[in-house]
Amino acid sequence: MKLKLVKASQGLQWVKQGLLALRKQPMGYMGLLGLTGMTALMLMALTAAAGPLLVVSLMPIAWTAFMVATRRVVTGQRVSLGVFAEVFKSPPTIRRDLLLLGMAYAVATAGVIALASLLGPNADEVVRITQDSEDMAEVMANPMVQQDMLLRLALTLPVSLVFWHAPGLILWGRVPLAKALFFSAVASWRNLGAFVLYGLGWGGLMIAFAVVARLIGAVLPVQVLMDGIAMVGGMALASAFYASLYFTVVDCFDGSSTASGQVPEVDGPALNDTERRDPPDQD
User: Fold this and answer.
1) Distance between CA atoms of 166 and 98, rounded to whole angstroms?
2) Residue 255 CB neighbour total at 10 angstroms
3) pLDDT, tens digit, 9 for 90 and up, residues 155-208
4) CA dihedral sign of residues 243, 22, 76, 3
5) Residues 134, 153 contacting (CB under 8 angstroms)
6) Please, which residues have CB within 8 angstroms of residue 26's CB and are 6 or more apart in sequence?
7) Burial of 139 (0-12, 13-18, 19+ CB in 10 A)
8) Phi, psi (5° rounding) for residue 266?
9) In whole angstroms, what is the distance from residue 102 CA to residue 177 CA?
10) Is 253 helix (H, G, I), strand (E, B) or coil?
11) Distance CA 111, CA 244 (A)
């Protein structure tokens, strides 16, 4: 396994690359996000009891689809809903490992929720505070809510980093599930500085968007306008974030793939360094 170490500043470059990819094909990415969101809502409505867990288990499939979409962008192709078909057209062993990855992620997420409920503030009290507060600012200012959010974030981040690179390693590197999780954890740890700046970069963009939206609302207090800005802006940021996942994977690994999965090639033979870093203009 050939791991690539990147500078901490590369984390901000990943943010930029995600935004550039979105700029090239915004409707393709946002359509993909919209389909993913609607599918999640339908699954939760049809299976109320197991719905949330089922949705979580399918998240690695969604991440993989967005990685495939970004690979299309950097090679000058159009993003379409066919990226999901491309994922499921993989060999049976790859599909099996991706589904098992989703199940493992669901179990890990359930463990995080259970541990947070055990160690953190009373869940019912947090829900009561959320329901009784007049606006989101009041909710966020509550110390109990802040404690709950920080604890959940602290428990979620390690899980996310372990699973981060795994879909790409399984799909393109033909790496078995257990090895993919191990290599993903090592890559995340060895490039932790880049991932810290990556997270701070997206956090900063979210805060900046919220400030701009609030300023617009103060100047033009039209609820319909504010709802539209919140929806479109939120979808754009989420789409850019998912678009950037591809770059975080291909920049952390290098080598040629083998049947045993010892040396995965997550960027694929069709890509070179220029294509990976600078998505071409679309006509």
Assistant:
1) 9
2) 16
3) 888 898 999 999 999 999 899 999 999 999 999 999 999 999 999 999 999 989
4) negative
5) no
6) 236, 239
7) middle
8) -80, -20
9) 11
10) strand
11) 27
pTM over 0.85: no
C-alpha 32/C-alpha 18 separation (Å) is: 15
Distances (CA, A) of 145 to 121, 130, 139, 154, 204: 8, 8, 7, 14, 21
Quote the Cα angle for 43-49-52, to 5°: 50
Q: Which residue type occupies 162?
A: V
In sequence order, the 6+-apart residues with CB closer than 8 A to the CB of 206 are: 237
Q: Which two tokens stand for residue 180?
A: 């993919």
Residue with tokens 């915004």: 26
Stretch 139-147: mean pLDDT: 72
Report yes or no: 63 and 242 within 8 Å, Cβ to Cβ.
yes
At position 123, the amino acid (one-letter code) is A
Q: What angle do helix axes 10-24 and 51-74 make, rounded to 10 degrees? A: 80
